[in-house]
Design brief:
With about 500 residues, this protein is an alpha+beta fold. The chain has a domain of about 160 residues. The chain has 17 helices and 12 strands. The strands form 3 sheets. A 4-stranded antiparallel beta sheet has the order 3-6-1-12. A 4-stranded antiparallel beta sheet has the order 4-5-2-11, with no helix packed on it. Strand 8 and strand 9 form a beta hairpin. Helix 8 crosses helix 9.
Length: about 500
């Protein structure tokens, strides 16, 4: 007996843990929304390229575009042009699109559009970077100025992060004579980044330029320069204007390195303008689009991978365990008497078509008339099978009559009674009549009322859209329900109705 209890406890723990872990993985790792009404932001980024083409020579336009696999999921990417060939390739870790045309003249406009979201982006596999580099050549006064700046930097830093940050801060101190010498007459952010790179090269510390776009809607954007260095484990990003470490989450990396955003051949006066806007999309539809775009298959093996018609069927079927759980709690804990366990659940399913109030009225009318017919047939001393056949036929005829009169009276809801499970009604009538004979009319009436109450509660829970979505999207929660049902199977305590039943003993 002890081994049996241990086996049951271990089984319950395994089922509950497995169901909770799978559900948590879907929610927190895959990012599947908990509610159907949940929405998330989708970014639309347009890069418009304008230039003047020379009609006497072929045109070739090359522009960097964002690398895939960042902390964003690309839902769509399109290249819009007229009479231009389009080719995308990878150069030094960057993606670059090439537009080409044999003949073009006058003002030209090309478009690059990207639609992305951040919600379903998984953990990015970090690419490795160099931890050592050769120093850049430097001589004369520049070398003396660089050594003068590096001396306090080495003294005030402890690792790569603090060394790079301190270097950037020193370079931004344009009042320092050594900094002025290295900057010359150019105090731009890009020149300061180049001087920081020069200083770090003397210490053999690699540094790379990162060009980003800030995700802010309805504001003109230009590429923003950041710096990064690899410390042996991860990339460290730095603001070249103040040395602050950490790339903000609203930055999209557009390209890496010192190259220019756009290069032209056979054209001139290139201009690139960025337009960003955002809108909200249903999170579940967004998950499906992200799944298709990333080929991750996170929803491929879920119930959403079924055909739509089949999904509608399973949305009803998968809620049956919820109805069974309601009946289990009402019977084992509440002590409510019903006609079995599955009969109230089937009646609750029928209420989905007739609606609750109309369904209860139909159930009461058909059951009462069926019991009356069954009582009449009892006087004829018929066997059970013929008697059941007559009751079934009577139920069919009664349903047809109710549907006909409902249609004539303009009550279209009455037409749904045809979907009422006739076999369940017939068996309900038969079982109620047997209960009437064996235990009396009051007990049969009590069982019928208990069945209606249980079916009504089950119907209420099984019809909650939020609960239906949650169970259909995270079916692993059914394992948790099974664990609870197993635990309820060993309950031997008093039921709620028995506390009132034996109340007199408590007084004594």
């Amino acid at each position: 007996m002890r081994s049996l209890n241990l086996h049951l406890k271990v089984l319950i723990i395994i089922l509950v843990s497995l169901g909770a872990l799978i559900t948590a993985y879907q929610i927190f790792v895959l990012g599947i929304p908990v509610t159907e009404a949940e929405t998330d932001n989708v970014w639309n980024i347009d890069a418009k390229v304008e230039f003047q083409a020379n009609s006497r020579s072929p045109v070739k336009v090359q522009m960097y575009i964002p690398p895939l696999g960042q902390n964003f999921v690309s839902l769509n990417e399109s290249f819009i042009s007229n009479n231009y060939g389009v080719n995308v390739n990878t150069v030094d870790g960057n993606r670059r699109v090439t537009w080409s045309a044999r003949r073009a003249s006058g003002k030209q406009s090309l478009y690059y559009r990207m639609v992305l979201t951040q919600r379903f982006a998984g953990e990015r596999s970090a690419d490795k970077g160099a931890t050592y580099r050769e120093s850049l050549p430097i001589e004369g006064a520049e070398k003396v100025a660089a050594e003068a700046l590096l001396a306090p930097i080495r003294q005030h830093s402890a690792d790569i992060e603090t060394f790079v940050s301190e270097t950037i801060k020193r370079v931004n101190n344009v009042g320092d004579d050594n900094v002025k010498l290295l900057l010359g007459s150019d105090f731009s952010v890009r020149r300061r980044a180049e001087v920081a790179d020069l200083l770090l090269s003397q210490a053999r510390v690699p540094l790379e330029q990162v060009h980003t776009i800030r995700l802010v809607a309805d504001q003109p954007q230009t590429p923003e320069l950041w710096l990064r260095s690899f410390d042996g484990e991860k990339w460290l990003y730095f603001n070249p204007e103040n040395g602050q470490q950490g790339l903000p989450s609203d930055r999209l990396i557009w390209w890496l390195g010192n190259g220019e955003l756009i290069e032209l051949e056979g054209a001139r006066q290139a201009k690139v303008s960025f337009t960003l806007n955002t809108n909200e999309l249903n999170a579940l539809r967004l998950a499906e689009q992200s799944d298709a775009a990333s080929n991750a298959g996170m929803l491929e093996y879920s119930l959403y991978g079924l055909p739509l018609q089949t999904q509608q069927t399973y949305q009803i079927m998968i809620m049956i365990p919820i109805g069974v759980l309601v009946i289990l709690i009402l019977r084992n804990l509440g002590g409510l008497q019903t006609l079995g366990t599955f009969t109230p659940v089937l009646i609750a399913l029928a209420f989905r078509e007739t609606q609750l109030g109309f369904g209860i009225v139909l159930f009461a009318i058909i059951t009462a008339l069926g019991l009356s017919l069954r009582s009449y047939l009892e006087h004829l001393k018929l066997q059970m099978l013929p008697r059941l056949s007559v009751v079934l036929t009577f139920v069919v005829v009664l349903i047809a009559v109710i549907s006909l009169f409902s249609h004539k009276l303009g009550l279209e809801r009455g037409l749904s009674v045809a979907l009422f499970p006739m076999v369940i009604l017939t068996m309900t009538i038969e079982r109620l009549s047997i209960t009437w004979e064996e235990r009396g009319g009051s007990h049969a009436f009590k069982v019928a009322i208990g069945t209606l109450i249980a079916a009504s509660l089950a119907h209420f829970l099984m019809s909650i859209p939020e609960l239906t979505y949650f169970v259909f999207t995270f079916p692993a929660v059914l394992l948790i329900l099974v664990g609870f049902m197993l635990a309820m199977g060993r309950y031997r305590g008093y039921r709620l109705t028995e506390l009132f039943r034996f109340k007199a003993f408590l007084k004594d």
